[in-house]
Amino acid sequence: MMTGDVGLFGPDSITWKLHREPILMLGGLRSLYLQALHPRAVAGVAQNSSYRTDMWGRLSRTADYVATVVYGSTADAEQAGARLRRLHSRLTAVDPRTGERFRLDDPDLLCWVHIAEVESFLTTARRAGVPLTPAEVDAYYTEQLRAAELVGLDPATVPATAAEVDDYYAALRPELGLTRDGAEAAAFLTVPPIPATWGGRALRLGLTLGPPRWAYLGLASTAIGLLPPWARKMYGAPGWPTTDLAAALSARGLRTLLAGLLAVAPAEYRVSPAHQAALARAGLA
Questions:
Q1: CA nearest 20: which of 114, 116, 132, 113?
Q2: Which bin fits 56, alpha (ψ -120 to 50), beta or left (φ > 0)?
Q3: What is the pTM for the complete model shown?
Q4: Phi and psi dihedrals of 211, rounded to 5?
Q5: Tens digits of residue pLDDT in 62-120
Q6: Can you spell out the DSSP letters for 56-74?
Q7: Which phi and psi (to 5°) does residue 101 adopt?
Q8: SS3 of residue 92 by DSSP
């Protein structure tokens, strides 16, 4: 019997089942490449974000937010959402194509970022071999309406099944494309500054193409390969079925590697701190 506040989802949710998979870090990277194809969304980031000077800090804060929404108490999740809404409400950007100023809390932009993220998590997990039935896929989309509401969206306006997400992408594709901001963001994602602590002595000596760099490039290329064919073509990458197969095999291999590493890791590293805290609140730890 659960004894405490398990937050927006809980241990019986598809959300908890999916987010215990470390491979979702690859899904997060895929979502950033996808989000960068929306001209206004990427312009908003370029004009208001410190990603060029603090990429890893920004990614860490985003990961913390997702962990709070998924595993935090109801109060923690609502407070995180309120902070994000306050931040977005103060920010604007200029569309470089039209010169029009727009708000970052525009519902159309918020919906794009939400769908790109949750669809990326699902697609990456499934292609990496996480077993999910079609009913579970739809359940995840429907559960994530709670996350959409946190950022200020009306859940009734957000796609809530796989078929609705497919229709959403099809309707939006004429508005998508690679702008200068998008190309710069994608290039930065592909070859970001690697912290010196990742590569030990080799990186401190300036050998920036050491193992950490090559490992990250492998992750980035897999994330791009996992994009829909139409999105890869916008980046000038092939939309061939063989690319889909290669990316899926790479994602499966990475999931197997991560599972092996976790199997020999100390117990405290096998479950994220946020997940551990949620299990404790539920009386399941």
A1: 132
A2: alpha
A3: 0.92
A4: -50, -45
A5: 999 999 999 999 999 999 999 999 999 999 999 988 999 999 999 999 999 999 999 99
A6: HHHHHHHHHHHHHHHHS-H
A7: -85, 140
A8: strand
